[in-house]
Amino acid sequence: MTRIPLRPLARILDARRRGQNPDAIERENRRLRHEHLRDQQRRVAESRLVVLSLLFVAGFLTIGARMAVLASTEPSEPASVAASASIAAQRADILDRKGRILATNLATNALYAQPPIMVDPDGAARALARIFPDLDAQTLAKRFKSGRKFIWIRKKLSPEQQQAVHDIGEPGLLFAPREMRLYPNGRLAAHVLGGTGFGREGVHAAELVGRAGVEKAFDGFLRDPANGGRPLQLSIDLSIQSTVRRVLDGGMRLLNARGAAAVVMDARTGEIVALASLPDFDPNDRPAPPTGGDPADSPLFNRAVQGVYELGSTFKTFTIAQALELGLVTPATEIDTKGPLRWGRFRIRDFHDLGPKLSVTDVLVKSSNIGTARIAQLIGAERQKSFLRQLGLLDPAPVELAEAPSAHPLYPSNWSEISTMTISYGHGLSTSPLHLAAAYATIVNGGHKVRPTLVLGGGRRDGERLISAETSRQLRKMLAEVVTRGTATFAQVPGYPIGGKTGTADKPNPKGGYYKDKVIATFAGAFPASDPKYVVVVTLDEPVETSGPKPRRTAGWTAVPVAAEIVRRIAPLLGVRPVIEQGGAPALTLTGN
Q1: Is residue 313 annotated as a catalytic residue, yes or no?
Q2: Annotated catalytic residue within 313, 424, 430, 432
Q3: What percent of the residues of the chain are helix, what percent strand, and what percent coil, each to the nearest 5?
Q4: Which of 38, 221, 506, 586 could link 579 by a cystine bridge, Cβ 3.0 to 4.6 Å?
């Protein structure tokens, strides 16, 4: 920059010649120099302000554009948590036979703490204890001050609980996204569904794994992404299941029973329409497995599948079916029923004196132990054991439940003649109500073996034939007579003829022998009696009917009325029309499932 001199010589000499003061020229030049410098500095400041303004505008535009991009895209986990993002949290739904939801997923959150960033650990502990009454404020505060960097507090939160925790305002309390398993029907079908729990867990995801029931049996299918979320559809009918459970629960309470089980099965396909076990539980809050004592005392115990019991006189049906099939007897063959029947040191007696002789039909109708034992002697041990195995009564039930393979029927290793005689009327062999339902379905459906299943379409018609159609017809007629004039007269339901058999078995005493006042009462029946579409089995553990002067425990007074009420309520729901008398002949119509 060229600087203008403050006292230029030419102007100074000219000013002196004119008589002017030369200092005025210096002051003027100094003023001009200052004005020039001020203008230059102003231009520099204005340039800087323009540049700074442009930088601010560019910054705001960049931030705004980024915010717009984030707002318009789906949220995703950051790359730093890629390990937990690999956890597959999705699980397919479970539906009933009509497409109604039995189990689904619900988006929720878990709660954890990071103590190093907590502002008020004591206050947070007290606030959490008010939200979650099962938490102790002092214990929680000690955990927060223990030096740990990460603490799980709750694995699942309801929306109300999450909001309450949020309102605490503690920065060290954080939420982790979760998928929880939801069972919208609560206790209904609890033993069928089983339940789930968390497997591998991360802060941003956790996998759901099956713990029991079909949730565990089909765990791979339900978690497989290749299925594209395709639901698992069961053969269970939610309406029938609800009705069966309600009636069974009322019967158990009315009869002071320790527990109860019921099975409703399609007699031709083996599809289980309802399966209930009481006491039960809510799979949304599945209790911990028992660590000791009798497993049957736990609500997790599935009496219909895991419970193996001596089912008493319901087994007489199998003995007579085999004898008829082998041609050893006919329904009219007379059997010696004079008692007691002696075999070595053993004595076999009937509940009442039934006379010296009974027809094979009346042996079943009047439930003669002696008559059934004599028929079993004609069959023999080997043939009896083979037939019961063919019926599936000596092996674990092949049903799609995680607990089923461990439920082994109990029978003597030495199948002697006395074993043959006692097993013929249901003593000395223990099996489950589900086994019994499948075996009765085989007997009444024309003789085709049934495989029990919980999957819709998983059953099959016309399995292996075990007895002839004629033998099956004869058994259906006999079982109908058991209800009309035998031990199960309380099973008569107006409009819905039932055929079935009672069974009352003394409970084994763990110390040896049998209890005198504790029984397992069972009724196995089929309806409509002339052409059965469904089998129903009801088992009560230690029932007592107290309406009379003396307590009554037999199945005819306990299990039979409960089964009859179940049939009365579910038959219309199953589409079975009541019998209409036409010229004395009943007409049955099945309208649907």
Answers
A1: yes
A2: 313
A3: 40, 20, 40
A4: 586
